[in-house]
Design goal:
The protein is mainly β. It contains one helix and eleven strands.
């Protein structure tokens, strides 16, 4: 197993932070039900979107040698009832950044979202 130097990790994290805030819009995270695509080059099925959360600009709260912490999102209204099984983060240019599996890569208090309910993230850390 290879080990990456702290300086290399910091450079990767800073590049990630710059990519997240690129574009003219705010970065977002959309929670979906159903099957997660095999990679971010595959379009997400918009019919499976449950809720879209918007990050403030800049979206990066803190960068450390081991993670990027994003600011809390806004509070959004759930547009479709369902069980969140995965989420995709998009940068400010609308480009897919990363897909996250609920319960594996990301933990939410209750993945069963109710139509018209409120949803937000308070803490979001991404590790390279």
């Amino acid at each position: 197993m290879s080990k990456t130097s702290v300086n290399a990790r910091l450079a990767m994290i800073q590049a990630f932070a710059n990519f997240m805030d690129s574009g003219s819009q705010s970065a977002t995270v959309i929670f979906y039900e159903g099957v997660q695509p095999t990679d971010t080059s595959m379009a997400a099925d918009s019919n499976n979107a449950l809720v879209t959360l918007v990050f403030p600009e800049p979206c990066i709260k803190e960068t450390t040698a081991t993670y990027v912490e994003l600011h809390p999102t806004d509070t959004a209204t759930v547009i479709k009832a369902g069980t969140a099984t995965w989420a995709r983060i998009y940068n400010g240019a609308g480009e897919a950044v990363v897909d996250l599996s609920v319960d594996t890569d990301i933990t939410i208090a209750n993945p069963n979202l109710t139509l018209g309910g409120s949803f937000q993230t308070n803490s979001f850390k991404i590790r390279p």
